[in-house]
Design goal:
2 copies of one chain form a homodimer. Chain A is built from 17 helices and 18 strands. Chain A is of the alpha+beta class. In chain A, α1 packs antiparallel against α3 and α16 crosses α17. Chains A, B: Its EC number is 1.1.2.4.
Amino acid sequence: MNAPLPKHLLPGILQRETPQALIAALKNRFAERCSTALVVREQHGRDESSFAAPPPAAVVFAESTQDVADAVRLAGQYSVPVIPFGVGTSLEGHLLAVQGGISIDVSRMNRVLAINPEDLTVTVQPGVTRRQLNEEIKSTGLFFPIDPGADATLGGMSATRASGTNAVRYGTMRENVLALEVVTASGEIIRTGTRAKKSAAGYDLTRLMVGSEGTLGVITEVTVKLYPLPEAISAAVCSFPSIEAAVRTTIEIIQLGVPIARVELIDAHTVRMVNAHSRLALREEPMLLMEFHGTPNGVKEQAELVQELASGHGGNAFEWASTPEERTRLWTARHNAYFAAIQSKPGCRAISTDTCVPISRLADCLLESVAEAEASGIPYFLVGHVGDGNFHFGYLIDPDNAQERDAAEALNHQLVARALSLEGTCTGEHGIGLGKMDFLLSETGGGAVDMMRAIKRALDPQNIMNPGKIFTL
Amino acid sequence: MNAPLPKHLLPGILQRETPQALIAALKNRFAERCSTALVVREQHGRDESSFAAPPPAAVVFAESTQDVADAVRLAGQYSVPVIPFGVGTSLEGHLLAVQGGISIDVSRMNRVLAINPEDLTVTVQPGVTRRQLNEEIKSTGLFFPIDPGADATLGGMSATRASGTNAVRYGTMRENVLALEVVTASGEIIRTGTRAKKSAAGYDLTRLMVGSEGTLGVITEVTVKLYPLPEAISAAVCSFPSIEAAVRTTIEIIQLGVPIARVELIDAHTVRMVNAHSRLALREEPMLLMEFHGTPNGVKEQAELVQELASGHGGNAFEWASTPEERTRLWTARHNAYFAAIQSKPGCRAISTDTCVPISRLADCLLESVAEAEASGIPYFLVGHVGDGNFHFGYLIDPDNAQERDAAEALNHQLVARALSLEGTCTGEHGIGLGKMDFLLSETGGGAVDMMRAIKRALDPQNIMNPGKIFTL
């Protein structure tokens, strides 16, 4: 059962009525592809966050850009909110109909439209998931590196500026989306860029849309960069006597400019949960899970240097995952850490944090927050894309226990305050959504949020595009 | 002497009056740091483009963010345009006071504010130039790779989304600016980001400002990424029997994912100009000027692979620039290609093109455009950041010869039309400025430009921030 919305969000909540005339118009246009069945609406009215709100009034299953444009235009005629929906893996309440309205499900828009292997680009519909994409481009010898924990859609990943374990080498959606097709609030279809690798042609609408969380438009097509599969890949696990030792090793890796592809911290609690969930036998100590990409010699050089750095901090000899199967098993276990944690405490939900700090501040930020979490007595998991200075605590709470929730929220507040004081951000990759609006204000100051509001008002004068997210108006 | 503004721009020109009361207020606030001397105004009223306009009514020499904020606020009280000025190296008329107004010269804001070597970041004032920056961070073992031809300021480079020869490996200003401080149209000072490497915190105001050409605010502080100086660097020159052979080699380098740091095409005409200007004796054939960064082994591997690819297309054995001095000499010659070309025809100006296409289309786009340029009889230079699909023709015209100008403009139009038909962009790194507004419309369609206009109106309701650039309102 989901918990009620946190109190500080209540002023933003204004359930707008969805007139029957709109529902009738949608049913007329979309027939059985417009559903008002409660089970369908409820499925589209929740995500992986701990927030809850009444479900949307209807769900439209779009199969084309024109479908999306028509749904937005009809909703606009009645000033009714529209909320894009991919596969529902948001961690920040992005999908919740906090001001009512209709959900536009783009999961059927799941075709890979154009693979251009010679240019290292691919254009997809927004409902294509990251795993599906990598499956479909397998034969080209290329891959798409961005990998949030869930098998999210490319549309959703663009909308939340997602990243994952490969970002330390390959960047985030910010660096990897080349161009978008977007349906605007007026139902117009625009293109934000070309397939050229660079451009200085006017305002960077692509990057304005990437991370706008559905509040400026619905993404209907995504062109992203691909990368040649490295000639050699090797993954290694290294255990450390302390979190600090693992973090200090990571800092040195980055400062030396080692082009490491992945460097993930997993704390001892989480290794234990992962072992239980994925039937692994990893040493239950703080560990770094690493991957090296390059030529065979290059990979060897990187690994030797990193092993040397790790040994200097008491790290063990690397344990290698040398076959693709072993590698997949390890990384799948890492990606399932969230679910492993959730299952470790039946009925719990996770309050996930997402701070990111400059790497020189990472040890301070992490260690103080670990001490606070330990002192609270609340079970937690801790994983980190530590090469980027980004890490996630997940406080495992009973959603019906107000005291636990308050304690977890307090931990998150302290963590964010600490990250901001260390020149970091409240969210590295999950987005603002419902729960971090106040954090965004603290982070940027009111002037920047006022600028965001001015842009929102200009591009969506009726405030129908996923309203009530990122900021209040 | 500068040529008159091209005819198609005339409708956008509306010289607004600058009231004496504003000049008096600026003189009162800035004393001798506000100049109305004609020579100073004229120096701030031109750039490296072939456009001309009456000079600004006054020039304010800002020494702090507060100076900029005060100047903008005063100008706003009289609805008078403000135009930021760094060192005046724009190629697209960005600095021209086409609607009158005052120039805000930030070249005295030239301090490096914070070097954070452990985080690979640096924060500078906008008047710091790229060479100055690299000089000041020399002792850290880090470098800043973005290198437009001119020794431009970081503020100007941010405002035009500049790049250069290293972009193929290190990206452009789009990928390398972490955060900005900006004075908005209302004179408010905002911060667009933190020093965290990743962020999903609200709209990406950093990247909205990067490339906005002064039309949304004045950049007063820039935080950029730095990179560890590679352990090994080697530069090589390789001559080819044809431009096509050089381009096909480049395409293979990129498609194989070789992490080449620089790969620049210089055509035979331009090699001749560069030899004359920089007293070099390069073989006067189409050539690639390349640089490899990495570990000593890594560099060797890359170079061997690229040599093999080049040989397959008739490329000569690489000639190596092995000492830092030889490398600097070569790259300085490359950076001075523009000036070498200008000096090859006394009194001429260059109409510079800046198209960028997906690399699979590069050979087609380039070769047809070379044929057209040859047929026109207009002397030209041709250099290209070909690893990115970006290249520049410079048509060398007598600015007083209307026929030559028309012929050069026609060549540029044909080139842009070709690039757009090949899924490319009209500008890879110079920006839209005055001369490419129609191209931007063709490239993006009206919907995207309307979105840009809506953002501009929302953030600058009086249209005082560098008006008349990128689009007409």
